[in-house]
Amino acid sequence: MPEAPKNTLKPTTDYNLELKNKKTLQFIEDVTSNADEVQKKVLEEILSRNAHVEYLQTRGLNGHTDRETFKKTMPVITYEDIQPHIDRIANGDTSPILSSNPISEFLTSSGTSGGERKLMPTIEEELGRRSLLYSLLMPVMSQFVPGLDEGKGMYFLFIKSEAKTPGGLVARPVLTSYYKSTHFKNRPYDPYTNYTSPNETILCPDSYQSMYSQMLCGLCQHKEVLRVGAVFASGFIRAIKFLEKHWRLLCNDIRTGTIDPQITDQSVREAVMKILKPDPKLADFIEAECSKDSWQGIITRLWPNTKYVDVIVTGTMSQYIPTLDYYSNGLHLVCTMYASSECYFGVNLNPLCKPSEVSYTLVPTMAYFEFLPVQRNNGVTSSISVPKTLNEKEQQELVDLVDVKLGQEYELVVTTYSGTSKTLSL
């Protein structure tokens, strides 16, 4: 069996950007053109390393690592099915229940899928997979928008509150986990991850101070900004509304070269002062633009070199498209990646497409993917109900990554390196 390409694509400084992009794009080509063999290898690796964990032993897999046995033996499950195991881990049980690797933390869901936050166990090495997926985004984007290495990205990124389980494990959102990791904080220089926001402003736990300082830094570097964004469309619009409310304070800071006293986080103040210098001309320019009756095109007016807005505008976020078009003068709205708390999935290989046409290419090294067809009853779409155990016929309904059919709707089922097996993605 051919070796699956490993998750070892890392930024380095010993070759030029063009060659780095070429290698990244070749990686995507390699793993997607050989997707079925890669998926077999991924599943084999997941099952072999976790062969002795409690969950797999109780399901009778008996050390088998082949896809056929896995499909016959392992049922599709929901979060509720493994919640008792998760509760044991959360309460301090360190035995290999779901994973042979130690559970490093819990990632919390947004709560939108069921009204209550769910805890997804994860292992340290998953940070490497998330970093890998992030490293694919800009080489793809650079095929469509040249020169992105010649400026900066103004992204509004935030951490959220975290908690500890009774057993002492941290529980926090996946992005908070990533931003607080050494993968993000100590990332090597890369022109594509050159942001206007210093790490200290992103990692500030006070949401007002974080937003204010990130906006201030973005305004100070307005000519260097080539792309703007946030994770979700709603988050970016919140940043524009913040500017609309606080531009006078921001202008005063830029005019005087001082930071508003409300910003009390010392690490934030020190980081911002490395960027902020007295600039009355810039302050006058911002004041003139923000004082106008209309804020139409405010993004391209204040950040004139911006080429696109990088935000998620699919699903429930599509309601914000008209507002973003208004503020950006119709710049491309780009959705670059597909990810969730339990797994990062794939990238958009046609990022300048219309929001209504967004599709993602799953990167087959991220996890083992299966697809549960969605039934249609008299034209109405409904998900297949998932029983505790599937009979042979129902098991056969699961479709592998390379066998999905164009036009058919599916529920995504993931088996991850963290040990969560055949779980319906939230």
How widely separated are the two ends?
Answer: 32 Å
Mind describing the biggest β-sheet? 4 strands, mixed
Low-confidence stretches: 1-5, 8-14, 378-390
Mean pLDDT: 90
Computed Rg: 23 Å
Strand order of the largest sheet: 2-1-5-4
Percent of residues in helices: 25-40%
* SS class: alpha/beta
Query: What is the strand content?
Result: 15-25%
Query: Count the strands?
Result: 17
The DSSP helix count reads 16
Shape: globular
Provide the domain count: 2
GO cellular component, one term: cytoplasm
GO molecular function, one term: indole-3-acetic acid amido synthetase activity
Protein name: GH3 middle domain-containing protein
Keywords: Ligase
What does this structure look like?
With 426 residues, the chain is of the alpha/beta class. The protein has two domains: 17-115 and 367-424, no CATH class; 126-357, no CATH class. The protein is 38% helix and 15% strand. It contains 16 helices and 17 strands. The chain has helices at residues 17-33, 35-49, 54-58, 67-73, 79-90, 126-141, 174-179, 182-185, 199-202, 207-220, 233-256, 266-273, 280-290, 298-302, 321-328, 392-396, and strands at 105-108, 119-122, 152-156, 163-164, 170-173, 225-232, 308-312, 332-334, 337-339, 344-347, 361-362, 368-373, 375-377, 380-382, 399-400, 410-415, 423-424. It has a four-stranded mixed sheet. The chain has a four-stranded parallel sheet with strand order 3-6-7-8. α1 (17-33) crosses α6 (126-141) and α11 (233-256) packs across α13 (280-290).
